[in-house]
Amino acid sequence: MSNKTDTAVKPVISRQPIILDTDKIFGESKKIHIRHHNKIYQLTITRHNKLILTC
Fold first, then answer.
1. What is the largest CA-CA distance in the chain?
2. What are the domain boundaries of the chain?
């Protein structure tokens, strides 16, 4: 019987991040709400076209 430990390396599966277009998720609105673990967050497009996430 061998006392060697299994040193095989499992390949890492690279997953590309999902890209969402703000025009599609916001529509005509400047604010959307996102639920994460039963907490509601607000994602807002500012007048300077930046995104702000608040809870």
1. 69
2. 26-54
Interatomic CA distance for residues 36 and 14, integer angstroms: 24
Pairing of strands 51-54, 39-45: antiparallel
Sheet holding 51-54, edge to edge: 31-36, 39-45, 51-54
Measured between alpha carbons, how far is 41 from 22 in angstroms, rounded to an integer? 16
8 Å CB contact between 30 and 42: no
User: Nearest-5° angle of CA 19, CA 38, CA 31?
Assistant: 50
Q: Are 33 and 42 in contact (CB under 8 A)?
A: yes
Tens of pLDDT, residue by residue over 10-49, are: 777 778 999 999 999 999 999 999 999 999 999 999 999 9
